[in-house]
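Shape matters. As here.
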Amino acid sequence: MKNQSLHQAEEKCGIAAIGNECFGCGVCACICPRALLSIHLNKGGFFVPAATNEPQCVHCNLCLSVCPCTDDLPAMPAGRIEPEAWRAKSRREQVCRQSAAGGIASELAEEWIERGGKVCTAVFNAQENCLEHIILRNPEELERGTGAKYLQSYTLPGFSHLNGHDHFLVIGTPCQIDGLRRYLRKRHWEEHFVLVDFFCRGVPSMRLWLKFMRFFKKKRQLFTNVAWHENTEGIPGDCIVFSGKDGSHSIAGKRRNELFFDFYRNDLCLALVCYNRCKYKGAVSAADLRLGEFRHPSTQNGKGGFGSILVMTEKGRRTLEQLSHRLERNRQTLAEVLDGQMTQNALRPRDDAVIRFFLNTAMPLNLILKWKQWTRIVFYFPQELFRRFRKRK
């Protein structure tokens, strides 16, 4: 039945077969020979492709050939090895404080640029109030890419400027990297790239971010960058830090932080594919390197804490060796690195559709959370008690 629906959709435009199962990586728009595809936010607040002039489609299906949604497994990178697990952090204390996951990505990007390469990563666009992938060419620009980014990014500004003669380091979500791997292989550019992803628990709706930013509407024009969960001295984890044009940093209030992270940590309003079709948990990846926080209970991972590295390919191993003078690292077992990371897809809440509806209304985030708490008490708690009672009998 599914194959039949795919065939019917291909009569219109290849990418129409994906529908709500889209990861939003954007590579379909990059490879379209007639530039008929654009990437836009759908009603749910996620980036998806759309055909701008569908009658001109020649049905080449190149968009489907690079789409990560058409396969149940990630693209297999060249030189694949058994994953090597490391615990690491930057040797520079300042980098550890200002960056996530021990500053590994910051050191990696800086070393890559010093060797004459370019870096493609997600930065915050203050004018559009969203994340977007762009090309960074010098150390001064790298500061915009520091800190974790807990949103889906708009990839076209960066991915559309990739080429086969420069050397690129690309950092993105696992699904973005999977789509990019397929795209590079189709273009025969793969050898010029090192691809890096990270342990991902899903991307929340942009509707959540836009509603959160209404609290800062009057000050938003002053912000040049936003980073989530920065390990800054004196600042606890799970906070959102705004950077101003004058280099100052301001932190969202404790209650404001809790509103955003209560949604995110409880897996509310994630993309539908994060619940249903994510295939990148654990050590499953199309990247050369996978980064993340080191969450093993034997280590106190507070400020200036360690990050984790999974080396997936020979190219990734060579890239990590080039950082030996920048990183303090120790070999770990795969189980130690995966401890504390999500190994299964997030569970979709029963009232997910209602919460998504509220995000599209004027209801504030705090009232949405209160509504969820009360409905859980009134409806779901008695059901759970009844279920446990029957199970005990």
